[in-house]
Structures are given as C-alpha cells and as structure tokens.
Design brief:
The complex is a heterodimer of chains A (358) and B (269).
Chain A lengths: L1 H13 L13 H28 L9 H25 L6 H23 L5 H23 L4 H22 L4 H9 L7 H30 L1 H6 L4 H42 L3 H26 L3 H37 L14
Chain B lengths: L1 H20 L6 E8 L7 E8 L4 E5 L6 H9 L6 E6 L2 E2 L9 E4 L13 H6 L3 H4 L6 H13 L15 H14 L4 E5 L7 H16 L3 E6 L2 H7 L2 E6 L1 E7 H6 L2 H13 L5
Parallel strand pairs in B: 3-8, 3-9, 6-7, 7-8
Antiparallel strand pairs in B: 1-2, 1-4, 4-5, 9-10
The chains are: A mainly alpha (358), B alpha/beta (269).
Amino acid sequence: MSAGVVAVLAASGLATADPALVLPLQSGLGDSVFGILLWFLDQWYWLMDWVYYFTGLEMLNPRYRFMHRAILVGLCVGVMAPLIGTFLVHRQLALIGDALAHTGFAGVAIGLFLNAVFDLGVSPYLTAVVVAMIAALFIELISEVTDAYNDVSMAIVLSTGFALGTTLISLNAGGLAVGVNQFLFGNLATVSPQSAAILLVLFVVIVGTVAVTRNQLLYVTFDETAAAVSGISVNWYNRVMVMLTAMVVVGAMQIMGVILVAAMLVVPVAGATQVSRSFSESLVVSVVLAELAVLLGIAVAYYGGVTAGGIIVLVAVGIYVCAVALGKVQSARGERDAPEMGSIEADSVDVGTETGDD
Amino acid sequence: MSANDADRATVAGRAEGETATSEDGPVVDLSGVTFGYTATPVVEDVSLTIDPGEYVAVVGPNGSGKSTLMRLMLGLLEPDAGTARLFGERADRFDDGERIGYVAQQASAAKGMPITVREVVKMGRFPHVRFGRLSSEDWAIVDDALATVGMSAFTDRRVTQLSGGQRQRAFIARALASEADLLVLDEPTVGVDAESVDAFYNLLAALNAEGITIILIEHDLGAVVEHADRAVCLNREIYFDGSTDEFVESDALVRAFGAEARLLTGVRE
C-alpha cells in the first residue's frame, strides 16, 4: 500500500497540467482509466439532460453539472453502502463504519497537509481511502490477535483518527476551515469530476468484490465457525470486508460527511431487516431504501437549501420507521398464517404448536 | 489470496501420499494432544482415533474441554503439543471442507438476520461451488436435505421465526447438503423440545446407518447411552473410551465428574 502512495505522489508530482485537473492517477494506465471515467461522466450528463427535458426538474438543469455528479455519487453510495452494511450489521459491526470514517478524516487532513506543504495535487479523498484502509486492517488485526471485535479498540482507533485529523489541520492553520467543513458534513456542490471518478472506481471494486465472494461473505457473516469448518479462510474474508468498508465510507463521505456516513451503512439495512424474509431480498430492499433516501434527500437539500448529509439521514430514518411499522403488520399477518403452514408438513413431529412463537 | 491458495496447494500436494492411503484410515486421529487457552491445559494428553462409520459421543461435565476437543479435531485450534489429524491430513491445514458437516450449539449463528431456511441449507453447497452459482443439481441436493429432516414446508420461512427444534433441523439439513463424510455436532439438542430430540436422534441413527461418521458432543448422558455406539468420557483427560454399554457399568462417570467436584471445593490433587 505504501508503494501505491509513493507511485501516486510521484505521478502527481510529474503532472504539469492545469492544477484543477491534475490527477493522482497519471501514469499510462491511470490516464486511460480516467479517460474512460470522464467519458462515462459525459454520458451521465447527457442522460441527466434528457431527464431534465422530460421532467423539467430544476435541479437537473444542465447548467448545474455539480448536481448531476452529486446524483451519480448518491446513486453509487446508495448501492454500495447498504451492500456492505448488510454484512456488517448482522455481525454486530455497525459502528466500524463510524470508526473508519473518523480515520478517513485523518486521511483527508493528511492529504490537505501534503497539498499545502508540498503543493501536490493529490485528492484528499485518495489519501483518505489509503489511511482508512490501513486503519481497517489495523482494527481487523487487533481483533484477530485478541480474538474478539471490541468496542474499546474501535473507540481508540476512532478517536485517534479524529485527533490526528484535527491536529494536522490546526498545523496547516487558516484558509482550510471551509475545506474541512466540506469533509465533516459533506457537500453536494463540491463533488468534482475528479472525486466522482474516484468514487466510480471504488464502486466497481466494491460491487465486483462482493459479487465474486458473496457466498463466502454470507457464510462468514451468518455462522463464522461453520464457515471455518467448511474450509473458508475466515480471517481473509474479514480483512476483505473491513477494507471494502473503508472504501465505502470514504466514497460516501463526499456527500454525507465524516460524521453521518455510518448512517448509510446501518439505517437502510436495519429497515430492510424488518420487512424482508430472505437474505437476498434484504439486500435488494436495503439498496432500494437507500436509493430512495439519497434521491429524496438530495432533492430536499437542493430545493430547501439544507445540508444534504443531514437530510438524507433524516429521510432514511423516516423510511426505517415506516419499515418497522410495515414489519409489525407483516409478522402479525404471518402469525395468522402459521398453523396453516404446519398442517402441510409431512413430518409432523414438531410442527404446529410452536410455529410463529418468534 | 492467490499466494494463500498456492500455499494450500503445496500442503495438499505434500499430504497427497498420506491421503491416498488414508481412505480407509481413521477419520479423526489425535495423539498426545494438549491444549490450553492460558498456561493451564484445558485438554491434556488426549489420544483418540475415530474410524469411518463410527457413532461416537464425547461426554463430560461442563468446562471439561469437550468443545475445545471438538475444535482441535476440526482444526479450528492448533494443539500446543501432540498432533491432530483429520482424514489423514494435519487438522489445522485441512481445507477439504466439503467432507465435514458441522452443527453448532444454536447460539453461534447470527441472530435476527433475515435469512430463509433454504438459504441456510444452501450454504452447505458453498464448499462445492466456491465462487460460482448453485446449479440445479445443487438445488436438488438442498431440497433433498430439507425433505430428509422434514422441513420441506418451511423452506421459505425466516429462520428467526422457527422454534429451537426446527432451527436445529435446518442446521442439520445444511450439514447434510454438504454431503459430508463426517458429521460433528456440538450439543445439538440444547433448547430443543423433548419430542424433537427423539426425532433428531432417530435421524442421526439413520444417517449413521448410511455410513456417515458421527461425532456428538453431548451433556445429556441419557441420550448418549441410548443412541451412540461408543462413548468418550472427558474431563481434561480421557477417563473412559469404549462402548456405551461398558461405559454405563464403569465408574468413569463418577471419577470424571467427581474430580470436578473436588476441584470446585478447592481440594487440589
């Protein structure tokens, strides 16, 4: 990972283009990848323009490219946050996202610091990803050594990250306060093409990894011991999981901010848990709920002139409350169905009397 | 991860000679195994061989190291001294997970997770499909396993809505779906209603008759005596290892549980 940082620093040091467009990805491959991402962004603008012409929604006005980018980032976050969150919540690891977000803040501070001192064009989000992933591995290794995830080690990592961040920023002094606010609370208007590109890369990595390892992640989440017996390397998948979490958290930080980012990992998943029966259903439902919260939240933020992160979380919590109510109704109806189910059962040893005693 | 796989491959390669000869060899082979979480050993100098097709119960008082012994057998723990072998390979390096079915005490699985019975049983096929999708053949095996444990009508039920007995059946179905040669059960009937317990032991007997090796960690002595062929009485060391009939007649139980009583009252040996 440190080699990666060096490469990034070297690449951006060599870059001579307009500072606003200087990219940490500027090596041969990085260039072409970024080219593809920009092309994709152009297609997205085009699509959004069409949606604007059809719906006439003011927030999609082609003059507001930043809104198009914010919606793209929001949609990606709405997929990957609950996707990863589902695996975290059911392992009682809901707060790891918060811990990693705070170390991500330290990463942002390091990025700003490097930019200020060495005049590098590194995106603070990139340093945030690196620092958060190191912290994630650190939490995981602590838990492997001590044999348990404990809230104490997580609290220590969380506060260390935040302390480091604030210290570095105070070292920088002046001129950075506005920038810090943007990272703490998120901002729709400051999603640059560069950070949108970084997010797209994170999105592909996260969704791809989960798609490939979904079997193993599910088994490890549901029953760690049985997963280990069945030959799955539990530690490896735990490491993968926390690294992905670090990526999601930093990706979502752009619009959610450090402080509220953990909510996207947890709230839609909690809502989906209330109404879903199967695991695959809960994945789909949590993504739908998250997208709903993100889109409604961005719209309210735009028209109401409020901070997007806060309103997205409030909408998500509102949806969660509705999901709880719906879940209660569902389970009440389910209990009524229960005896019927039992009578179909061929092996009648243990059926009928105890169904639905949840 | 690829490095890890390569490492495993060489381990498998090295062990290949042994595996070839171990087809008829013991399923579990512990010799002189000692293990402790701290300096005090929980399991001390245990030697135990379990052959294919056996139905073995491991009994002992609470805290006697039963579950630790099981974890050592399965390679979840590495012995401090002695060797643990599973199907002829070093247990902690063994990764042929499709040969082992495992049913835990029900507390171990995630609570409150939305997941259906069928999805739980599906996990039994994961060692076979690894990163792929389940084929229709795999799904057929899953449904067969559900039918065997009499849970076909509950396939789309959420696991959290089941009773203890039904949930335990689902976990057994998962072990069955893995088409394992060895079934390891750790106090599977804790929290299960009496009627289901009987049905459950009948199922185990039927599976054993089909040639599946069964290792049962059990606190309920009555069940052990009634159902298993061989009993291993453990309290840090092995106090008894032989047929269940002899076990009833021997004084192993008194010695094993009595030793615990003396320790509890503070009189050390």
